[in-house]
């Protein structure tokens, strides 16, 4: 998957998804999340791949290692470029996910890259302390999950822009830092807590950005994508 912004296709049907994509050129990076996947099943991934899109299948697996392994084996056969788990599932679960992907990747194809969600971008410091009973800071928690993911052999993590720089220091520049919670300076946060602009993401060392509502909810989604892409790439 190249480094262009990944558009979160948070739609409730294939029809709405392809209507939306109509005004865009092919070859974009897109994200299929739970809503669209649960509605349409594997065919949505196959259709997007057939049309030349690179697909991040964002199903955030979190279960016992054996279940995650066998599920990843199935997902590997679907042709997604990037898939994910929750780091909170543990190192053994993440290693099992990789094993499943290796086993399920068809001969001659590349294994999908695997990243782990650290702390959701909708989570704030208070929730980490009061609900998860984690006594370190949110940033330390993200960093710990990043290191654990790297030890497990994963390709990177999902994190907010606010942790990207420290993750680069500890896990390296090449380790994927895929960051949702992206908003233009004048955009609303919605349910996200740890938000940042595309430019802040670039400067912090994010390797990829995921953008949903700032594009899908815009009056002119293509124009919004172009502005975000320009800011992300650092074009004047
Ligand atoms: O609309 P918005 O830009 O907030 O969409 C962000 C997308 O990224 C959503 O599809 C959400 O499920 C996903 N995501 C996230 N935070 C994570 C992992 C994925 O917001 N940690």
List strands and helices in order, with pairings.
Layout: E1 6-8, H1 14-21, E2 29-32, H2 34-40, H3 42-50, E3 54-61, H4 65-76, E4 82-86, H5 91-104, E5 113-117, H6 125-130, H7 138-151, E6 156-158, H8 161-171, E7 176-179, H9 198-204, E8 208-211, H10 213-216, H11 221-233
Parallel strand pairs: 1-2, 1-8, 2-3, 3-4, 4-5, 5-6, 6-7, 7-8
Bound molecules: cytidine-5'-monophosphate.
Cytidine-5'-monophosphate (C5P) is lined by residues 8, 10, 33, 58, 117, 120-121, 158, 180-182, 190, 192, 210-214.
CATH class: Alpha Beta
Q: Provide the succession of SSEs.
A: EHEHHEHEHEHHEHEHEHH
Number of strands: 8
Query: CATH topology, what is it called?
Result: TIM Barrel
Largest beta-sheet characterization = 8 strands, parallel, barrel
How are the strands ordered across the major sheet?
1-2-3-4-5-6-7-8
User: N- to C-terminal separation?
Assistant: 24 Å
Radius of gyration from the alpha-carbon trace, in angstroms: 17 Å
Low-pLDDT sequence parts? none
User: Average pLDDT value?
Assistant: 96
CATH architecture: Alpha-Beta Barrel
Overall 3D form: globular
Total helices: the number is 11
How many separate domains make up the residues?
1
Helix/sheet category: alpha/beta
Query: Which band does the percent of strand residues land in?
Result: 15-25%
What helical percentage do the residues reach? 40-55%
* Small-molecule binders: cytidine-5'-monophosphate
The CATH H-level superfamily is Aldolase class I
């Amino acid at each position: 998957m190249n480094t262009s912004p990944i558009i979160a296709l948070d739609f409730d049907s294939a029809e709405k998804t392809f209507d939306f994509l109509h005004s865009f050129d092919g070859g974009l990076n897109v994200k299929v999340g739970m809503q669209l996947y649960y509605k349409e099943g594997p065919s949505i991934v196959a259709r997007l791949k057939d049309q030349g899109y690179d697909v991040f299948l964002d199903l955030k697996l979190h279960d016992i290692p054996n279940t995650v392994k066998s599920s990843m084996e199935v997902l590997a056969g679907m042709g997604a470029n990037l898939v994910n788990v929750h780091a909170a599932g543990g190192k053994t679960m993440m290693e099992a996910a990789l094993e499943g992907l290796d086993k399920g990747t068809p001969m001659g194809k590349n294994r999908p890259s695997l990243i782990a969600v650290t702390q959701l971008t909708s989570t704030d410091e208070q929730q980490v302390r009061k609900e998860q009973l984690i006594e370190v800071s949110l940033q330390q928690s993200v960093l710990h999950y990043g290191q654990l993911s790297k030890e497990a052999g994963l390709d990177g993590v999902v994190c907010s822009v606010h942790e990207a720089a420290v993750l680069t220091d500890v896990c390296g520049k090449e380790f994927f830092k895929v960051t949702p919670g992206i908003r233009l300076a004048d955009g609303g946060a919605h349910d996200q807590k740890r938000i940042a602009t595309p430019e802040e993401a670039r400067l912090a060392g994010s390797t990829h950005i995921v953008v949903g509502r700032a594009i899908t909810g815009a009056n002119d989604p293509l124009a919004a994508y172009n502005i975000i892409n320009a800011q992300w790439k650092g074009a004047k």
